[in-house]
Amino acid sequence: QMDLVESGGGVVQPGRSLRLSCVASGFTLRSYGMHWIRQAPGKGLEWVALIWYDGTEKYYVDSVKGRFIISRDNSKNTVYLQMNSLRAEDTAVYYCASALTVDAFDLWGQGAAVTVSS
Amino acid sequence: DIQMSQSPSSLSASVGDRVTITCRASQRISGSLNWYQHRPGKAPNLLIYGASILKSGVPSRFSGSGSGTDFTLTINNLQPEDFATYYCQQNYGSPPVYTFGQGTKLEIK
User: Which residues of chain A have a pLDDT value below 50?
Assistant: First the structure.
């Protein structure tokens, strides 16, 4: 069974950093682009970042450019989201997701909650 | 950037009803439109991709249509498990930016 499991969420003060991890099981991550998508409290889904299967290309939503970094370690079947200079508006549940079989997000993790608060 | 607009933002219906949710793109996106169901506390679930292709395992009461800028998600014979929030999402163009609609919350009447 293919699965994605996020970890690393928690409560952090504004301006600090946090790193999320997403571990894949049941399939080999190296063949797929990976995404981070978030949902702020009471809000809708927002795509955050994409990393190509080989890590050569990365894309971000404007609101996190220059602050967040997506990376991957295919040997560990893991994708990361390094979140720096965190703001209150970054408070959200962060999901990792991938398009394994179709051109859409067909596999999602259960999410990691991040709260940015003093 | 391409903006996605869903309507209505919320909807009340009864078990057995048929409901339609619409999604409009700010520019033409061909058929690059996907629909997701999201229940509280769960991961979102892909229902429809490529505007009208039902994901394997999704009940046939769900259907999608549209192309260009206007799209619809139709749910026939609503079941209790269908009460959730639904999102459209576009993945058209380069560089890739994946925009979601604001969501439609489907509630039991």
Answer: none
**What DSSP assignment string belongs to chain A?**
--EEEEE--EEE-TT--EEEEEEEESS-GGGS-EEEEEE-TTS-EEEEEEE-TTSS-EEE-GGGTTTEEEEEEGGGTEEEEEE-S--GGG-EEEEEEE-SSSSS--EE---EEEEE--
Does A103 contact chain B (CB < 8 Å)? Answer: yes
Give how far B64 is from chain A: nearest CA, Å.
14
Give residue B93's pLDDT band: very low, low, confident or very high (50, 70, 90): confident
Q: Are A112 and A64 in contact (CB under 8 A)?
A: no
> Do B20 and B105 touch, CB atoms closer than 8 A?
no
Rounded Cα–Cα distance for residues B54 and B56 (Å): 6
Question: Which candidate from A44, A59, A106 shows the least CB-CB separation from B95?
Answer: A59
Asked if A36 and A49 count as a contact pair (C-beta separation under 8 A), the reply is: yes
Task: State the pLDDT confidence band at B96, using cuts at 50, 70 and 90.
Answer: confident
Residues in CB range of B109: below 8 A, 6 or more apart = B12, B13, B14
Phi, psi of B94 (to 5 degrees): -140, 140
Tell me what the pLDDT averaged over chain B comes to. Answer: 96
